[in-house]
Amino acid sequence: MNHKLRALVLQHLSKGSRAGYGLIKDIHEHTGWKPSYGSVYPLLDQLRKEGLINRIPSEGGTKKKTYTITAKGKEELKSLRHHAKEAMAEVNKLHRTVMHICGVKKVDLQIEEMLARLINPNPEIKLIMKKSYEMKFELARILKSDAYKRHSKRIVELMDGMTAALKKIE
């Protein structure tokens, strides 16, 4: 099961009831990644069977299924956050070790700060993250299609240019 999607669904339901389509839209707006209907709806059924969410009756005779998080679901989300925090602490230790080995003395933005900004981003960060994901997916598409063989020099030039431009931002 996709643990990332599970956490995102529980996170968004903790903010209020949502239909499946609304969850997909919220996740896409928040992360830039759009989960498929074929992954969200089976997950919602699974979470419901586990007692982590409830399906609430639709209003006005519509067939739209709306979901809400249960107390058990809130505990699961709390546990997921705790495990993510522990994992990030381990990643941070590794990050510091690699920095030490590489001779890096100072980093202005630690992993915990980056994570905090990603979990609760403001609109500007949301847009930057969305564009970052879009770029990543385009690179994955190019690598999958073998187009990189014909365009590797141009891709590296673009990436070097972007890195250099980002380094100039203060």
Can you tell me about this structure?
This protein has 170 residues and is mainly α. It folds into two domains: 3-74, Arc Repressor Mutant, subunit A (Orthogonal Bundle); 123-170. 69% of the residues lie in helices and 6% in strands. The chain has seven helices and three strands, in the order αβααββαααα. It has helices spanning 3-13, 20-31, 37-49, 71-101, 111-119, 123-144, 148-167; strands at residues 18-19, 53-56, 66-69. A three-stranded antiparallel beta sheet has the order 1-3-2.
Spell out the blueprint of helices and strands.
Blueprint (H helix, E strand, L loop, with lengths): L2 H11 L4 E2 H12 L5 H13 L3 E4 L9 E4 L1 H31 L9 H9 L3 H22 L3 H20 L3
Antiparallel strand pairs: 1-3, 2-3
Helix pairs in contact: 2-3, 2-6
Distance linking N and C termini: 41 Å
The portion of residues assigned to helices is 55-70%
CATH fold topology of the largest domain: Arc Repressor Mutant, subunit A
**Main sheet specs:** 3 strands, antiparallel
Tell me, what is the CATH class of the largest domain?
A: Mainly Alpha
Radius of gyration: 20 Å
Structural class: mainly alpha
Q: How would you state the average pLDDT, rounded?
A: 82
**Beta-sheet strand percentage?**
5-15%
- Counted up, domains total 2
Architecture of the largest domain, according to CATH?
A: Orthogonal Bundle
Compressed to H and E, one letter per element, the order equals HEHHEEHHHH
